[in-house]
Amino acid sequence: MATLVTLQNRLPFIESQYYYRNRTADGHRKKEYDAAVKIQSWFRGCRVRAYIRYLHKMMTIIQKWWRGYLGRKQYRQMVKTAYLTMKMNFYNEMAVRIQKRWRGYKIRKYCFNYYYLKEYLRAISDTNQAIREALEEFAEMKAREKKKADLEKEEKRKQNQARKTHYLLSTKQSPGIYNSPFRDPDPMEFELRKVRACHMTPPRPQIQQTDYEDLSSWLACTSKRSFPRSDILPPINRKQYQGPFRDIAEVLQQRYKPLQPTLRVATSINSLRDAQEELKREEWKHRVNDNMFLPFSNYNKNEKYIPMIHTSTKYTGISYGQKPFQEEEPEKWISNKNFQTVFPPFALFEKYGKLYSRAGEIV
Amino acid sequence: MSQRQVLQVFEQYQKARTQFVQMVAELATRPQNIETLQNAGVMSLLRPLLLDVVPTIQQTAALALGRLANYNDDLAEAVVKGDILPQLVYSLAEQNRFYKKAAAFVLRAVGKHSPQLAQAIVDCGALDTLVICLEDFDPGVKEAAAWALGYIARHNGELSQAVVDAGAVPLLVLCIQEPEIALKRIAASALSDISKHSPELAQTVVDAGAIAHLAQMILNLDAKLKRQVLSALSQIAKHSVDLAEMVVEAEIFPVVLTCLKDKDEYVKKNASTLIREIAKHTPELSQLIVNAGGVAAVIDCIGSCKGNIRLPGIMMLGYVAAHSENLAMAVIISKGVPQLAVCLSEESEDHIKAAAAWALGQIGRHTPEHARAVAVTNALPILLTLYMSQDSSEDLQIKSKKAIKNILQKCTYLPALEPFLYDAPPNILKHVVGQFSKVLPHDSKARRLFVTSGGLKKVQEIKAEPGSLLQEYINNINNCYPEEIVRYYSPGYSETLLQRVDSYQPLI
Fold this sequence. Notes:
The complex is a heterodimer of chains A (363) and B (508). Chain A has 363 residues and is an all-alpha fold. In chain A, 57% of the residues lie in helices and 0% in strands.
């Protein structure tokens, strides 16, 4: 009880104590709380930081590996491409070398072949030379021909001249002007001797130009004579006619006697055909029956022969083949057998027309 | 009055008419009478005589008309205006051969003056009757008709086409196959006139088979026929490659070269023209001509004649050389360049010189080898004088300038270039110095020679604008030499030396 009493005695103290303590506790509470929060936050911060640090570390490791992987991959790729480029460069270089050689060879051989070009140019100059020579020759030939023609013309002119001046020829009595007795005779003299004089040839017949003189041509304006005439044709034969000739009357009679053709000439060339035609026509005119005669065809095989009324009779004769041509008298026969040949046939004639030699013997 | 007396009157009348036309026809042959005849009204008097009863008078009247119309185009126009043509055309079909000949002569004489007059003839329907005359039996009539057709076709393509449409070409081709030389000549000339206008017309002539017959006649003896034949072939060949090949296929080639040696100048000219027309189309055709030795023959031909006859040959060389360097080389090998240089110097007419200059330019423009071949013949100075000369025509100046430029740009033959340093105008000097600047760095002997001949000195004297192409070339040349030499040859060097003497203070 005493305790109780002590306790009770001490109650106000306790109360005040309680109160006091509570008050101090309350007074410190905020501070303590803040401190606790601080401590906690620091701790938590440490913990989270450590975790993040940890995460970072891990991340670095991951990234390190990944980057390493990527880098290695890229590097391999790079090496591969570098190798490839190197290879390609090398190949290209080699290809260029080959192409260079080949192209050079080809061009030199086929396009700009120096020796070929040289040969070609040489050939051209050869051809030129040949052509020049040939043309020269041709021109020379032409010139020669021309010269010859000129000479001939000159000769002809001279001859003509000589013919025209034939009267200058020297005669036995008096020498001509070209045949001086004091000098050698002029070449013209010989020329004169060679040719015939102009007047020795018969003169050309002069054709009268009667185009408009007579009236008949005017009336018949398309007649032959009204056309302008060309020069008369030169005579075909300039030689002198050589006599002796027949009497002119006789010749004329011969010339103008009436034509007496032979029978062969007088008949026309198609007289035979005409005669045949005529014959055919005649035959056609006189024919009674137009049926054609067809002896060997089957056409009239079944046709019954119709006898004419006038010639038909019931007493017909014996048909052909039945009637013997020779009289038969069987009672005079000595035997009923026919004759027989006694001699064998002649052997040589059996072979007639066949070969006699042994080589071509008939088996 | 007796019958005889009556007829006497008629006879006298006829005689008088005949005499009249004959005298007029004879007077019309002299040009001094024409004026008087015209003033006397001869046209109106001749016209009724064309319808005369007597054929001789008709023919002589036509002949007189033809001679008058032949004289000048006024009279030809008077014939057209006098309505004489329809009458002529009408009777051309009806009458005998002498009249046909005379009528065709009138048509020819009228048609030759101008396209309008020829058109007037075509409008009269003369072509059909002329074509019918081509079928005539008489060669004289054919000749006259072919002549008239040729003169009509000569003027322009349309008239030619009209002649072709009238069906004249096959008959003309038949005419060249006739034995008469004169007829062949005229027919060939007519074919030439027809085919000269356009490729189509030429093709028509070719389709009628003219080439083979024409080619056969190249070797004919008659020079005038040869002229016409060669002219016809060249007129056909000039239009296109195909036609030229057709002509070549007729195997004209070694044969036509003989014509280049002919006595007749015009045969030569026409043969060269033919070869030129063939060569100008393609390198292959040129090659063919070169292989046949045509170039040598043409060069000989150029050497053997003068003036305009040379012109086609010169042009042919230019065309051949223009195609390729090998062909140009062939021309050089055939000794064409000296011949062209001779032409250049001795011809008097500008257009021939221009052609020669052009041909030389075509030869020299390929490689240094070609340029050298041209340069050694001493053609370059002649070209330069032609270019510089005041008398030269503009065309000649342009052509020579082009030729000089073409040759210089390839030329490495320095002795020929050297004179150009002294007397060439700046626009050519540029190329010369350029050539030196290309050659000198690689050739020590040339460098030495260049100094000793005074070329370097001349180069230093050239005034070039800084930065120009010329300056660059000069610098290139200067770089080939030691500096002292360059300075030594520079103008005014002696004065600078003297100045240095003045300014020098002797050390005592």
